Amino acid sequence: MALADVEVVVDMDVEDASDASEAVQVLRRVFGYEAFRGSQQEIIEHVIGGGDAVVLMPTGGGKSLCYQIPSLVRSGVGVVVSPLIALMQDQVDALRALGVRAGFLNSTQDLEERRLVEAEFLAGELDLLYLAPERLRVEQTLNLLDRGKISLFAIDEAHCVAQWGHDFRPDYLALSMLHERWPEVPRIALTATATDATHTEITSRLRMEDARHFVASFDRPNIQYRIAAKSEPKKQLLELLRDEHAGDAGIVYCLSRASVEKTAQFLVDNGIAAVPYHAGLDARMRAEHQARFLREDGLIVVATIAFGMGIDKPDVRFVAHLDLPKSVEGYYQETGRAGRDGQPSTAWLAYGLQDVAQQRKMIDGSEGDEAHRRRLSAHLDAMLSLCETVQCRRVRLLAYFGQESSACGNCDTCLTPPQTWDGTVAAQKLLSTIVRLKRERGQKFGAGQIIDILMGKKTAKVIQFDHDGLSVFGVGDDLREAEWRGVVRQLLAQGLLAVEGDYGTLVLTENSGEVLGGRREVPMRREPEKAARAAKAKAAKAKRAAPVDLPEEALPVFEALRGWRGRTAKEQGVPAYVIFHDATLREIATLRPTTTAELGAVSGVGENKLAKYGQQILDELAGRGAEGGDGAAAGSSGAAAGAGPSGAAAGAVAGSAAGATARAAQPVRGDRLPPEPEPEPEDEEALPEPPDDIDW
């Protein structure tokens, strides 16, 4: 498939829904929304008509609606293939809260529970059935599906089929057989993360060459991207949380389990609610920490990349990285977990030279052939380029995915444009020092020792190796240490310097000679002073903290509704956003409806929820609610900004092709342990401790 032939769908709200198609009726009746957003309606109508589709849409764009509504309109059961076993319970709970007949089959269930779901499937009593991809390699599951009626197959997180991708799952490779075994059943593959290469691989490996392709803009305008030089990362993180995100829910990513534990404890010691999450924790603790994050306000999860895929928590206000992500794809997917509700959010990253040394070490020790290692190196180089760019971060990020954009005005380089300077002479000094150490002494060192030599520092190690006798000793005393670290990082990002070995020693590349020979200039971004960094953070905070459109007199009403929602969610054992999203509560607080008819006209209040919660909300508005109604919500403050269904708001719809009333959801046991966690990098604990000469 030539990607030039792919249909790119521009995001435009669908205002004209006067034809009131069956899909629109489902959207209005149960979800309570008047119109679809972006390309949702076109995708949905295409799949309802029996067509295959490949959908690339950012997190929060409403991908789930694109298979849930067709499953409800078409005859039969929609089978959703998802790798997120630990989250299937929450997905099904959210659907059942809307009246949708949903179930799942995975390894967390006992025999009796599985048999109940299988019987419901065979009896046509389900609208949606969630399966893990590995179950489709079991003949018993295939035989079960043969005996029922399937309306469609939805392949969620389709990028997991990309063999060299950051989330590769081998079981996804077998999903091409869906078309072979059920050729008349439409398929829809969806992902929020895909380069052109990954898009092509999804199409090829899933045998979807004849599908229609819908590619939405990957831009997340509500997310503010910020990247800082790493100095004291935990203190930098603490400053971010205290100054800008006090009381907010967020995710902090670290590369190793040890770093996760230390960072979580550091936050707790400083009075911030935080829990760790990684594969080394036992199943019960992982389940507890994940459940708390979904159900509580203001909790921070410190995690490895094992955490986050499919987490449907709308009000994550920030995602922070204390270590450099391995690829731009991974960075985009992880930062995309912030701001699913469309409200202003922060993506913050601190990175330094040690990150590069760690990543190079992991690449050198990775499995696979030389071509695979070259791919990993290319991913890292692209990530370094994003970190050191003087352009708009968003422009560079979207360009990586083949999309054009203009300067956003909502990233650190736009808010405080970095100054640039001619770093050619500084680069020549640093590269010359590396050359002289190699030629004259037969030695290689990391950045710390080389910077000490350049700055003329007579440290114990400099004296030990007689490096104060080198001709280059002290030739770089015109730059601060932080500036020299910036020179090293930018030379790495420009491919003019490389890191090798277990100890992060610096070596020249094939392009270094052009700089040493004066045939290439080296423009660089200037390292900001501490005061400038503080001013940048202040500007970023002001930009990010755009006021939510809520009248002042409606604020106490909104908080009272959040309090009611939190208590209700706690009683039912579900995340608060399953009850209602913040956007819906804001509209209720603003309009103050007094009748069920008025309440039913609010965006996000469908028939099922109106019947279930309508009188409680009216009582709350009239001041007749339960005691404590003026407090903050005990559960998470889920949200779905905007008038249309998106992200977490687009979790489910009720109704069926025959228009039958959905039966009451059966109780589901909530004390199951999750399965083994999603795979983490095998070498995450093998990261080398830097030697003394690397003063990061």
UniProtKB/TrEMBL annotation:
Disordered: annotated span: 627-696
Cofactor(s) listed: Mg(2+); Zn(2+)
Give the keywords, sorted: ATP-binding, DNA damage, DNA recombination, DNA repair, DNA-binding, Helicase, Hydrolase, Isomerase, Metal-binding, Nucleotide-binding, Zinc
GO MF, one example: metal ion binding
Q: Which residues cross the membrane?
A: none
Catalytic activity, EC: 5.6.2.4
Q: Which domain of life is it from?
A: Bacteria
Catalysed reaction(s) here are: Couples ATP hydrolysis with the unwinding of duplex DNA by translocating in the 3'-5' direction
GO CC terms on record? bacterial nucleoid; cytoplasm; replisome
The Helicase C-terminal domain, residue ranges? 233-384
* Pfam assignment, any one: Helicase_C
Spell out the Acidic residues composition-biased ranges: 677-696
BP-aspect Gene Ontology terms: DNA recombination; DNA repair; DNA replication; SOS response
Q: Which Gene3D superfamilies match?
A: HRDC domain, P-loop containing nucleotide triphosphate hydrolases, Winged helix-like DNA-binding domain superfamily/Winged helix DNA-binding domain
The HRDC domain sits at 551-631
The Helicase ATP-binding domain, residue ranges: 44-212
In what ranges is there compositional bias, type Low complexity?
A: 633-665
NCBIfam families named in the record: recQ, recQ_fam
Family, per entry: Belongs to the helicase family. RecQ subfamily.
Full protein name: DNA helicase RecQ
> Which source organism?
Streptomyces inhibens
